[in-house]
Amino acid sequence: MATFSDAVRALPDDALVALLRARPDLASPSPSTLRSLAARASSRTSLDRALAQLDTPTVQALEAVLALEDVLPAVRPGDVAAAVGATTPDDVAAVAALLAEARTRALVWTPDVADTALRAAPGLGDVLGPYPAGLGPVTGDPAPADLTDLPVGAREVLDALAWGPPVGTLPPPGTAAREAVDALLAAGHLVPGQGDTVVLPRTTGLALRGGRTHRGPALAAPVPTGRRAVPPAAADAEAASAALEAVRLVDTLVHAWEETPPPVLRAGGLSVRELRRAAQVLGVDERTAASVVELAAVAGLVDADSRSAPVRRAASWVEDDVDAPPSYVPTTHVDDWEAVGTAERWAMLAAAWAGSRRMPWLAGTRDEKGATRAALSADLGRGWIPRLRAQVLTALASLGGVAATVDDVSADLAWRSPRAVPPDAVVAGLVAEAALLGATGAGALAATGRTLLDLLTTEDDDPEKSLAEALRAVLPEAVEELLLQGDLTGIVPGRPSRELASLVERAADVESRGAATTVRFTTASITRALDAGDTADELLAELARRSPVPVPQPLEYLVHDTARRHASLRVGAVASYVRSADPAVLAGLVEDPRLAELGLVRLAPTVVAAAVPAAVLQSALRQRGLLAALEGPDGRPIAHLRRPPRLERGGSRELRSPYASPGAPASDGARRALVERLRVADGGGRRSPFPSTAGGEAGRIPAVDVVERTPIGERVVTDARPGTPGPGDALALLRDAVRDGGHVWLELVDGHGRPVRRRVRPLRVEAGRLRALDTQRGAELTVAVHRIARVEPDDD
Quick one: average pLDDT of 634-642? Predict the structure, then answer.
């Protein structure tokens, strides 16, 4: 009889590639043989992962196969369709397609390729539970139960257990209900359970259900009712506005932290005070500020640098003995950020968000120990978030362009993954993040979100380019016009161009944003523009060029008056200086063209300032023949200076499928190459499932006790000395024997180092241990699977 391992080994290469694509964890780490692949595919861990990705109708179909395979001589797709309640031709075809997909995932298999009879994968029943579809166990004759001539009250008892769970409690003795239960027990319609419980047999349950395993097929996701429809154009417009705002917030945060880097907490993360300060700078609430901070971090724009704080505090002066706390500073990714436009910047954020494992909505909450979770701390990371994010976007896409609520998304997710229903708080956090980023608009998935979802499920050579094009397609045309008004305000009638946005940012304060942006010119804003290097005439000329009307007189007066007061005092900065008691030593330094790149300025006859760090200045002077000593701020000589480094590290922006497993082949070409290697290994003849042990004394094999259960108790019968781990082939043989009730040969080593072969019938493989029955000795033994030296099938 063909086994599950035989069926997997007989699959064509294309089917094996499809299996590895659907269940990437099977290839991480790479199996050694096809039999090992089959064993891994039937392991509880892999089956749990596979079932977590299945929707409700697929789980129903698998439950039907499990429930029927012990009742019917052969389970065929038509039997499964009838069991789940599919009556129309379309529903029957849909169930057949679900079973075909389950077969692709090796969750069901056919013993004969020429037959359509289905069997559940080994171990599937253990994962789905002892009562598939709420049906009890098979007891006695699997023929349909005869429910005619039931005693009084028996029908009510059976109906209460019909649709599960099939376990009930015995009524008190002497009652009418107890008499009905006793009659059902005597007729075999109920069987005794553990303790004072009774169990409804599977055949009786199917008879009560009319042969069905489910009330009806849940082939379609729940459709929300009473929700407002959102036109695609409206959703795209809202999403575009949110995307622009997200880019602006991240850009504002980066520049703010460039000026004042916030310190990193001793335990990691951003303090509550610094998060509140960031919220004030951004003009948002703390929850939104946490999302912006995390978004900038996952995009690699900011990162912790233990060297940044002392460098800035000491202005590149000395390497002191006091370690300053690390700070969050911009990284070299900011160079790429500043070199591109708004659409490309948003693409950087969207690609990073798609693969992020962060949960910023938890910032400020308390953990199990009562400690406050900090933004940017390790406490906010979860490995399953990228997969759930893709599922949330899929749910929003399936809701048909309505203003979906969190409850609508949660209901859809419960249908899409009934065995892995996420908490509502997590769903709410992801929906809020999607709205903040601009993947949704007015509650509906926008074109930007659909592009992001497509990139998560398909391969793309340049995902950031696709994302930028998606946003660019929904962005309104940029405007170059600024309508100046006499009350020192101005209006940008639309989305400002990059140049206009830069002018507004440095010369005005934004009062309101929306379809149009209202700004106000103040003394502080004009001072900000002058600090950036603009002169009064240059600023007024730029405003006049942007405005369709002449610059109002109040604004002109404000600019000139601010510029006049701005130039009355001058404050400058130098990176280093050189001083000498003899003015003759410094003579000619400022005028020397060879030192022009140093930015030398004479402050006094004996003092010259420079625009380069002290180490660079010292090296240049020595090249000129001047031996200059280094000194600190207090004038005392020091040994060396600290040079301000540039933070090179930052987050990766690679967009990777959330369903991928680390180390698994990422392309069909790599999967096909793995299949070819497995074919070669599998065709090399049967080998020991466990290679020889590595390490330890030569010729010595670790010992393991084998426990034998006999009618008079347990005793240690051998001191087995097996080989090493690598139990893929052995597990496959053992699981096949458990399922089919067959025998295998186990090779153990007794206490004298001699090999011992025992013919056993495996009973159960779980938790890394084998329970088996030695029929020749009439005893049951238990042994750790990874300690078995060899497993061979019994061909007799």
Answer: 57
Closest CA to 138 of 68, 197, 75, 80: 68
Tokens found for residue 725: 């781990």
Helix (H) or strand (E) holding 681: helix 668-682
Q: Across the chain, which distance is largest between two alpha carbons, in Å? A: 124
Name which of 427, 458, 375, 476 is nearest 659 in CA terms. 458
Confidence at 646, pLDDT banded by 50, 70, 90: very low
- The residue-averaged pLDDT of 465-483 equals 92
- Cα 93 from Cα 86, distance rounded (Å): 9
pLDDT at 636 over 80: no
User: Which sign, positive or negative, has the C-alpha torsion 302, 307, 313, 315?
Assistant: negative
Q: Is residue 464 within 8 Å of 452, Cβ to Cβ?
A: no
When mean pLDDT is compared over 628-642, 671-685, 712-726, the highest value belongs to: 671-685
Q: What is the pLDDT of residues 292-345, one digit of tens each?
A: 999 999 999 999 886 544 333 333 333 443 455 689 999 989 989 988 999 999
Tokens 């088996």 -> residue: 772
Residue carrying structure tokens 């510029």 = 563
Could you give the 3-state DSSP secondary structure of residue 769? strand
Measure the N-to-C terminal CA separation of the chain; round to a whole number of Å.
13
Report residue 791 as tokens.
């497993």
- Whole-angstrom CA distances from 224 to 58, 228, 254, 404 are 22, 10, 40, 8
Instruction: At 286, list the tokens.
Output: 């703390």
Residue pair 6/733 in contact by the 8 Å Cβ criterion = no
| Distance from C-alpha of 363 to C-alpha of 385, rounded to nearest angstrom | 16
Residue 662: burial class (beta carbons within 10 Å; 0-12, 13-18, 19+): exposed
Model confidence over 394-441: pLDDT tens digits?
999 998 888 899 999 999 999 999 998 999 999 999 999 999 999 999
Beta strand ranges found along 298-415 (DSSP E): 302-305, 327-330
Q: Are 258 and 335 in contact (CB under 8 A)?
A: no
pTM: 0.73
The 3-state DSSP class for residue 186 equals: helix
